[in-house]
Amino acid sequence: MAELREGWVGGRRARFDTAGRVRGLVSHVGDQPVGAGAHVAVHRSTQPHARIGAVHTADALAMPGVYAVVTGAELHKQLGDRLFTGPAFADQPALAYEKVRYVGEPVAAVLAADLATARAAADAVYVDYEELPPVYDLADALTGTAFVHEELKPSAVFGDLRHLHGVRDTNVNYTYRLRHGDAQAARDAGAHTVTGEFWAPPTHHVPIELPCTIAWVDAGRLEMLTTTQTPSYVRQTISDLLGLPLSRVRVTTRPLGGSFGAKMYDRLEPLAAALAWTTGRKVRIVASREEAFLLTTRHGAAVTSSLTADGEGNLVSAIADVRYDTGAYADVGPRITGKSGMVAPGPYRIANASVLSRCVYTNKPSAGPFRGFGVPQVTWSHESLIDELAHELGEDPYAFRRRHLLREGDEAPMGTRMHSADFVGCLDAVANAIDWFSPLDRGTGRIRRGRGVAVGVKAVLTPTIANAVLQFNQDASATLLISTIDMGQGSDTIMAQVAADVLRMDSTRIHVVRADTDATPYDTITAGSRSTYHTGNAVRRVAEAMRDKLIGLAADRFGVPASDVELTEAGLRGGGQVVPVTELILGHFGARGATLTTEANYTSKWVPYDKETGRSAKVTEHWFAGAVGVELAVDTATGRVRIEHLAVAGDVGKAINPRLVEQQLTGAAIMGIGHALFDQLVLDQGQLINGTLLDYQLPSVRDLPGRLTPIIVESPHDDGPFGAKGVGETGILGVAPAVANAVRDAIGVRITRLPLTPESIVTALEGNA
Amino acid sequence: MPFLHRPTTLAEAVDLLSILDNAMVYGGGTAIQILVKQGILHADNFVDLALVPGLRDIEAGPQGVRVGPMVSLRRMETDERVRATVPLAAAAYHHVANPRVRNTASVGGNIAHGDYRLDPPTALLVLGATVEATSVRGTREIPVREFFTGFQQTALEPDELVSAIRIPAQPAGSGHRFEKNSSLGENDWPCASAAVLVTGHEVHIGLGAVAPTPRHVTFDARGLDDQQAVDAALEAAEPALDPIPDVRGGVAYKRALARVTIEDAVRAAWKEHRNG
Amino acid sequence: MKLASEFSVPAAPEKVFPLFFDPETMRGCIPGCERLVREDEQTYRGTLVNEIAHVRFSAGFAAVISSVTDQPDGKAVAAVLSGEDRRLGSSIKIDARLTVRPDGEGDSSGDSSVVGYEMDMALWGKLGRLGEPIIRRRSREVELEFAKALAAACGAPLDRVEAMDSAAKPAGGGTLRRLAGARPAATAPAAGQRDPVVELAVATQRLAVVATAVSLVSLLVAVFRRGR
To answer: What is the pLDDT of residues A701-721, one digit of tens each?
Structure first.
């Protein structure tokens, strides 16, 4: 019984695929054989911004084993402007057409008998370019006269972007404004103001598994096996790209080996579909590790901001100017700009707030979704500012935050009320964990110790749609059809737990089907920490529908009203009788192996931002609340930071599986440590110069804190499945500012540019001396 | 793709090197494979030494150790004879990359790579090791202090391979220390490394990553206390510090980190020598 | 990537300057420069050939002059250089600026000039993600080679040229130093008022810029071809 319950809601059962993932027994997309298919390699631009002249393909075509070399112009001839895709703007061609907009942009694709031949032939392609003035950074983009795109091309998906269609002579593709009260006047009148120029650099996701897409045409249908978090989106995109009905596009997946936002929206899929469709060949595209760095990045973001308190220490004004560098293609940048801009003031009671948040094109690799969806970049600003304001007022940074944090029912500056967002509980938990209230050994010699805390707030992706289909098998096992992608977060495990809890069954007897758009139902996306809540609700509903169906059958069998029948571990019980589910279904169908089927939907709704104020009464279905506490030591001679203890807390509403929640909080914290201390993409005049795993810095086991304490806070959500919400992003929000605040505490220096490299710390100390 | 040759004798290997176009000796392959994967290595022929007998031998005696080029870095850190005879070298090999790399990378390939950031050369410089270079013309001995001739350039001729490294035994009663610091992730390439040997009368310092080549400096330590030794070490090292600025840090920071690394290593080696 | 440095040439500006008017001298000073053709007033094309560790390579480049200043107290030329290595899928663009001025800190006889260069170099493609430390390192070697060749061309005694091995190392531990400020203002030559002597000076001074800049590229390519 206890074992059974470990697989229900609140149980700590191990994920079903741990051994398979660790030992390589789970097969991924890249493991699938392609038989006689063509291997694709891409010739990439060596110019940041240029008009494409002749593309010389003869040398490549002459190489033995090369089937074809395809250019953007050829694809455009066949597909027209449908070649341009993207989740917010239809601006990204599968192969560059007429212009290249970043160094490394795909210009031509080679199809060959094997990958080595394809890559050698791709190197043999050369291109004549006519140089155009490049836009390297935010300053170039906002003040210069060169433009990455001639005009804005919002996609048909989002109605609120329609007014941007055809706008010319700008690199700003989206602007979000929040106006709450008169923030400028309140700042002018305020007693204490702190300001900052913050920078969070672009970073890369670096999932272990490399992106890979296999596409082929079967009986007039375009079929695809791909590494994606967004199969439903990809099906729609391919349908639009090729002009096919959705029923003639099939997108299938395998478990992902990590993603963090890297495998979403338009990555390899549009190119693979276009090549398969136009050549009739089965094609396989796999990104090399170096190419993967170019596929998508986290937005570098600059934030110019201020926070003002009155004479009593009340927060009276928050002002932020946020610029997201989205690179050559908008991707989902405009959505990030809005959703992150609205929380730029932070999770505090602030009387007046003003935010200008812009999404800006530059001639660099495109930036898109990344764990946190732009929020870590603004958290970096607001959690540094409030810390500094506490110092200025002579107050304890923990206590000062606690006094101002939003409580249940409070309306945030962007107009939406807080529910199931226990910021205070999270902050208290991490402060207690790192012994905030006991004296600190400040260190001796060149070692200096400090402590810091930070709080984060993020909205769940809203509105979204989730569907679930459940087949209950006669042998008391079940097959759950959903389109959530298990990329290591454990969704297939916890969805089974939700269904098993409702059906009082063994969760290991529930198989979750891999997303296959021919079979599994529409699901908006596996991203934005939305699946536990949205798909979890759909799964709970589909299981409840199945329970009701079983009870109905049993009621007929027992000859009692359905209200007298109960589903238990032993089977269905009612009117003094018990029947195991196996017998019930066997009796109903008269066949072994028969299945009962139910389906369910869960859809969340929002109220769009007011055009003038950027406010909304319901901007999101729910909030994520998180906090981080850090105790660290700084070696003032080398500048190296050693995190001695990091505590990370997240309000998850209700932990469906506490073990997996702890792993998510821990994993997010480790990723955040990289972002805090050394992880960044370095670009020089549009060229990525550290885009290899030799140079790109990721936390290794030797960079981990001495202690890492994940803490689950449960403030149940009224509408969550068993009160649950997601947790994938909660842990990362506050890591970088908590580290910087602890460095500030240790050495008295405030650093506003990430990452806090040893060099930046030594330089700051010298500047301070 | 380069052609892979797998000779079974040393004579056959050097013969291949003398006749093949654009050939490269293939040892453990840890450096070569990375460059191949990144598409920037255009060797036409690899001469793999894996099947040549005797190249994985370690000979140890009171005078020192003689190490075959295909001995893995991992064995250099774990072999009891190496640890006892040249503990500073064992310490430097222990710090290279990670166990997976050390299990694969070879002693000969490591030094022939000639990269300025490698750990082992710092100790080999300090201990006065000798590289045996073999070609069809025979075998010659190159003092390791003359081996690193320029940025990623060594004294090896294109048709030569490293056939052994001889490391003289560390003097009894000496103190030693290997220290390295990275500037970003802990597991990153070093930004400064120092191998220090303190004997009765002098101090030797080998420096990695702080100049375009590994550097060696020495000074007379007679009559100095530990702080004076540190000061003397920094003064002696100063002309050798010539760091290349890159994503891992600017010149000023790299110089500062080099000084900290030298100080830490000298202090520790000095203490060990005194406590002897 | 910004590179800037300067080096002394042991000859007075009056002696150094005419050398910039002699394409043959320049070609001799540019490490690896095999061919140099003037296509029109602003545009030059050339080939650099180098051989390192038995790997021979050849890289084409083009250079376009963007501005010239020729005043008695200082001379400067700015040019944009571009080159491509197709095999390595890489291209390069350099905004380069070369200055020549009397060496005020030289010995009392005043027989010394300072040649300075500033380059803003963009290296795109496969090499771009790998080349920075190498190009920074190589730039110093090329600079030294060029300076020595120029000094020899000036007729400096051999021992002085050899001495440059150490003397040519800039201050600050031999690292390239960034030259902030103190840059002479560049002025574009006014149309229709071109002095033929200036024209020639432009052409040859540009060669020097090409020398230092493109040689860097060629050496870089060589290093990677060699596979180190």
So the answer is: 999 999 999 999 999 999 999
Which of B113, B142, B168 is the last residue in one of the domains? Answer: B168
Domain count, chain B: 2
Q: Quick one: tokens of B137? A: 């013309």
From the candidates A47, A56, A130, A685, which should be mutated to test the interface with C, based on the most C CB atoms within 10 A?
Answer: A685
Residue numbers of the domain that contains B259: 175-275
d(CA C213, CA C122): 11
Reported as a single tens digit per residue, the pLDDT across A133-170 is 999 999 999 999 999 999 999 987 777 888 899 999 99
Across the interface, whether the CB atoms of A689 and B189 are under 8 A apart is answered no
SS3 of A91, please? coil
Please give the structure tokens belonging to residue A527: 């991203």
CATH number of the structural domain spanning residue B250: 3.30.390.50
Q: Which of A641, A687, A759 to mutate to test the interface with B (most CBs of B within 10 A)?
A: A759
Asked, for residue B254, whether it belongs to a domain, the answer is yes
Measure the CA–CA gap between B155 and A473, rounded to whole angstroms: 73
Of A695, A698, A757, which has the smallest distance from its Cβ to B183's Cβ?
A757
The greatest distance separating any two alpha carbons of chain B, rounded to the nearest whole angstrom, comes to 60
For residue A721, cis peptide bond before it (omega within 30 degrees of 0): no
Amino acid at A487: M
pLDDT single digits (tens) C158-207: 565 555 544 333 332 222 222 222 222 333 333 333 333 333 333 344 44
The shortest C-alpha distance from A86 to chain C (Å) reads 25
Collapsed DSSP state (helix, strand, coil) of residue A649? strand
In whole angstroms, how large is the CA radius of gyration of chain B?
19
For residues B258 and B134, membership in a common domain is answered with no
Hey, are the CB atoms on C228 and B22 less than 8 Å from each other?
A: no
Co-location of B200 and B122 in the same domain: no
Residue from C137, C139, C169 whose CB has the most chain B CBs within 10 Å, to mutate? C137
- In a domain? residue B117: yes
| Same domain membership, residue B18 and residue B136 | yes
B124 and B32, same domain (yes or no): yes
Say yes or no: B31 contacts chain A, CB-CB below 8 A: no
Which residues of chain A does B34 touch, with a Cβ-Cβ cutoff of 8 Å? 694
Q: Chains A and C: how many Cβ contacts under 8 Å?
A: 50
Chain C neighbours (≥3 Cβ pairs under 8 A) are A, B
In angstroms, the separation between the Cα of residue A693 and the nearest Cα of chain C is: 11
B126 and B144 share one domain: yes
Using the Cβ of B103 and the Cβ atoms of chain C, whether some distance falls under 8 Å is answered with: no
Do B103 and B183 lie in one domain? The reply is: no
| Predicted ipTM > 0.90 | yes
User: According to the model, what pLDDT value does residue C53 have?
Assistant: 35
Q: What is the pLDDT of residue C115?
A: 77
Same domain, B141 and B187: no
CB contact under 8 A, B247 and C136: no
The answer to whether position B56 is within a domain reads no
Q: Domain for residue B87, yes or no? A: yes
- Taking an 8 Å cut-off on Cβ atoms, the answer to whether C91 and A47 are in contact is yes
Q: Where a domain ends, among B168, B183, B214?
A: B168
List, for residues A227-248, the tens digit of each pLDDT value. Answer: 999 999 999 999 999 999 999 9
Hey, is the C-beta of B209 within 8 angstroms of any chain C C-beta? Answer: no
Task: Write the CATH number for B98.
Answer: 3.30.465.10
Mutate: best of B117, B151, B156, partner C, most C CBs <10 A: B151
Query: What totals of helices (H) and strands (E) does chain C contain, helices first?
Result: 5, 7
Rounded to whole angstroms, how far apart are CA atoms B140 and B156? 10
Among partner residues B35, B245, B255, which is closest to C227 by beta-carbon distance?
A: B35
Low-confidence ranges of chain C (pLDDT < 50): 51-56, 106-108, 165-209, 219-228
What is the structure's pLDDT at A97?
Answer: 98
- Which 8-state DSSP code applies to residue A483? -
DSSP code of residue C155: T
* Residue C128 touches chain A, beta carbons under 8 Å: yes
How far is it, in rounded angstroms, from Cα A231 to Cα C57? Answer: 48
Cβ atoms of B207 and B214 closer than 8 Å: yes
Are residues B106 and B8 part of one domain?
yes
